[in-house]
Amino acid sequence: MPQKDPCQKQACAIQKCLQANKYIESLCEDVIQAMRKCCEVHAGENSVCCSGFAKEHKATDTRTVV
């Protein structure tokens, strides 16, 4: 039996919040942030839920700090 995705709970919370708020992302920033944190914690694991967040995180890491 496959293991449950470690961030599935947060992914479901995002969907629930977006549906309740007519897909206005700014009203769900707290649950989106919780998903980002979960994905950071479970970065080395094979999480389908985090696939988009992992790409987003890598894109922001390419900035150069002066």
TrEMBL record:
<comment type="similarity">
    <text>Belongs to the CMC4 family.</text>
</comment>
<dbReference type="InterPro" id="IPR027179">
    <property type="entry name" value="CMC4"/>
</dbReference>
<protein>
    <recommendedName>
        <fullName>Cx9C motif-containing protein 4</fullName>
    </recommendedName>
</protein>
<keyword id="KW-1015">Disulfide bond</keyword>
<keyword id="KW-0496">Mitochondrion</keyword>
<dbReference type="InterPro" id="IPR009069">
    <property type="entry name" value="Cys_alpha_HP_mot_SF"/>
</dbReference>
<dbReference type="GO" id="GO:0005758">
    <property type="term" value="C:mitochondrial intermembrane space"/>
</dbReference>
<dbReference type="Pfam" id="PF08991">
    <property type="entry name" value="CMC4"/>
</dbReference>
